[in-house]
Amino acid sequence: MALRGVWQLQKLVVNYCDWGGSSRGIRAFMEKHLPAFKENNPHLEVVTELVRGQHPNLKGIYKNHNERVVCVRNLPPEDVLLQATRLRNSLGRKVVKLRTRHVTKRPSVQGTWTTETQM
Q1: I need a labelling partner for 57 at 20 to 30 A (CA). Which of 17, 23, 34, 43 fits?
Q2: Which H/E stretch holds residue 82?
Q3: Computed from CA positions of residues 94, 62, 58, 39, in that sequence, does the dihedral angle turn out positive or negative?
Q4: Where along the chain do its domains lie?
Q5: Distance (Å, rounded) from C-alpha 18 to C-alpha 50?
Q6: Under CATH, to which class is 2-89 assigned?
Q7: Which residues 6+ apart lie within 8 Å of 39 measured at CB?
Q8: Which residues touch 91 (CB under 8 Å, ≥6 apart)?
Q9: Within its chain, how far is the Cα of 8 from the centroid?
Q10: pTM for the complete prediction?
């Protein structure tokens, strides 16, 4: 995703094994979809790394120095492309779990409104 017109994903690292069966989908992705993905995203540096004996994964490195790693073990090439597109479209921010659904700097003195509140 672009923040103020600048794509946040800086580098996409594709780790795969040339022998393992769990890397079959990512090897097919590299043959079929990766050249078109590189061509459609010229701002993105795509690096492939051969890591033998490990399950395949995609690692996204963002401009804010955060990293996201997605395991693509036993996925078909279309799903690997979907995961690469999701990494490209995300901002790279850490996921923060909210304590409540309502976020405010000044919480109500009277309490949070619920459907059981009597009038």
Answers
A1: 43
A2: helix 77-89
A3: positive
A4: 2-89
A5: 7
A6: alpha beta
A7: none
A8: 1, 3, 8, 62
A9: 11
A10: 0.80
